Amino acid sequence: MGAIFMSLVELRGIKKYFDKVRAVDGVDLEIDEGEFLVILGPSGCGKTTLMRMIAGLENPTAGQVFIGGADVTALPPRKRGVSMVFQSYALYPHMNVFNNIAFPLKAQRREKKFDRRAIRGKVVDTARLLEIDMLLDRRPRQLSGGQRQRVAIARAMVTQPAVILLDEPLSNLDAKLRANARDELKEFQRSSNITAVFVTHDQIEAMGLGDRIVVMSDGKIQQVGTPQLIYDDPANEFVATFLGSPSMNILRADAWSFGFRPENFLPKTLADNPENSRIFDYYVKRVEYLGSDRLVYGYIRGRDSELTLAKVPSNVRVSLDVDSDYEFAVHNSDIKFFDRVSGQRIEHQDLGGVV
Amino acid sequence: MASVTGLSNPRAYLLDNRRFVGIMFLLPALVYILLLVGFPFLLAIAFGFSDVTVGNTDLSFVGFRNYEAVWENNIFRQVFGNTVMFTLVSQFFILIFANILAIIFTQEFTGKWFARFIFILPWATPVSLAAIGWLYMFDTKLSPVDYLLLQTGFLGPDGVWGPGRNLLWLARPALSQVSVIFVQVWRMTPLATVILMAGLSSIPTDILDQAEVDGSRFMRTLLQIKLPLILPIMVIALLFSMITMFGDMTVVYLLTRGGPIDYTRILGLYSFQIGIEGGNLAQGAAMALFAFPLLLALAIVMLRVASRAEVR
Q: Residue B204 and residue A139: Cβ atoms within 8 Å?
């Protein structure tokens, strides 16, 4: 027996109930060393609670947390070798940047035997790495949002933790800054090779950052996999509709439903493989011009009650007039089938009698 | 005729006027301050420069004569010293106890609600009732405290504080001062605690969670995170408590009437005794006004400290 490769963090049967609310309801998960793992889910799905249990800020109702092969379930945060970046950054407002970054070092100086000079060295090195070394004397309120985020990351990195936990750290930045910060964060994680667990409700962040994504809903893991796997091969209807903007079109049959993404639903003239595609008679009700795409609202003839969207790139010269009928095609492999009761993916069904 | 907006009555009413509504909201507070604070204050200043007594209510201007008399009064000097000493010593203990209690009451434990309720009682009790209660506790013959000390062997023929059977809490110079300070601390600690509790619970949980993940233990979190963050509110609590203490006379009036000799006589009490009981309104007023510049300076300094310590 004995696993040769032990994952860095392992969660076994984790549950957390707050009175009757099942915040986390049986989660098993392994996180590998050096991995950037994103936990993605709508608000209230238990993702932050799960992260807080890895940090030790919350005790699981049931289950175990292992870090580096050791059972840390009963240990306080300071004995777990983790650090955390909160959504609010939680910078100590009365300390300057230097003292903020130095705080975890000072708090752990006895265990780790840091002297004053070692602390100064580490703080300055980390600050330089994050390009905030000219801000060391500033107070948090004198910093911009992006600078605050860097200070929070520096403080989380300075102790060289086994795992860094990030709770929606980009959501307080304005949209322009966010793409930039995302890129820097990923670059930084890759170069320092640190293991990161990143919680977010933003699918673009998740897709862009994650080596793997854990999709959560109702306290349970819905699917774990690479961004591409989760997007192209969703395990169930929740994952299929949660990812993608606009979300996947779902059409109901008796015992199952089927769906396809708006960007895979294109005028037949544009389909590259019409013989392997399913052709639908599509009525165009309204067209939104979004710059790079045209978002088409309409329905498939015979299924007038189910709004069906198509996302057609603007650069293809195909005219789509409102209040007209067109033939639209979806490649057979882009049509996903789900059980109507469980929502789980099922094998291909015959669409013949349905549409 | 209907207008374009479809509103039948496009007139602005008086209550739509923000300025008017603002003044209306401020009015009760203004009336209160003018009638019950401003008027007595101006009256006291007028009295302080006059020779008014209970018997002769003609106000004739006498300049600084009252203030000179008060300043040369040896009893006044001791009274002033007592007041400052009582205030500082009691504030010292109040601050320590209030901090400890606020930290305890912001933790989770069973029976917290009941403990909080019991604890707030000294503050909720009217001062006069509380003082009468303590008068009994400190009674020369019947003091339950003495009884306990007697039973445990601290008092009585062989006791360390013997051979007497009573400590005479309110009759000995130093002990009477201790007793008065004790009652003041007992009575003022709850308010300070409640203010500090509000301060502690206003610290964002993220900050405290962050400190915990950063590896900080109880004492470090307390000294380096919590206390610095509640410093502004602590200064305000201290200011409130000091001003109340400085002007208070109820506790000493009921417990000791200022005795033995002048050991527990404080400014509020003495000016009341001279001005009202003794009938010398002018000198009583002058005496009370001595506290004003001191408290004003104190308030300015402390508010400035509080706003400087404010970091958000």
A: no
CA A122 – CA B32 distance, rounded (Å): 59
Which ranges in A130-243 belong to alpha helices (H)? 145-157, 175-192, 203-209, 227-232, 237-242
* B311: nearest CB among A57, A106, A139: A139
Check if the beta carbon of residue B201 is closer than 8 Å to that of residue B235. Answer: no
In a domain, B149, yes or no: yes
Query: How many domains is chain B partitioned into structurally?
Result: 1
**A57: nearest CA in chain B?**
B209
Give contacts of B311 with chain A, Cβ < 8 Å: 93-94, 139, 141
A57, B211: Cβ pair inside 8 Å?
A: no
pLDDT band, residue B291 (cuts 50/70/90): confident
What is the rounded average pLDDT for all residues in chain B? Answer: 86
For chains A and B, count residue pairs whose Cβ atoms are closer than 8 Å: 67
For the domain covering A9-232, report its CATH number.
3.40.50.300
Cβ-contact A314, A295 below 8 angstroms: no
Q: In this complex, do A78 and B207 lie within 8 Å of one another by their Cβ atoms?
A: no
* Domain-located, residue B11: no
Using an 8 Å CB-CB cutoff, list residues of chain A that contact chain B.
52, 55-57, 76-78, 82-84, 86-88, 90, 92-94, 103-104, 106-108, 111, 139, 141, 155, 159
Strand A336-339 to strand A345-346: parallel, antiparallel, or no bridges (unpaired)?
antiparallel
Task: Report which of A161, A134, A160, A156 is spatially closest to residue A147, judged by C-alpha positions.
Answer: A134
Average pLDDT over residues A325-342: 93
**The domain that contains B91 carries what CATH number?**
1.10.3720.10
The parent domain of residue B305 ranges over 73-309
ipTM above 0.95, yes or no: no
Q: Which CATH superfamily is domain A249-346 in?
A: Nucleic acid-binding proteins (2.40.50.140)
Retrieve residue B3's tokens.
Answer: 């207008």
Structure tokens at A199: 């919680």
Q: Do B216 and A103 touch (CB under 8 A)?
A: yes
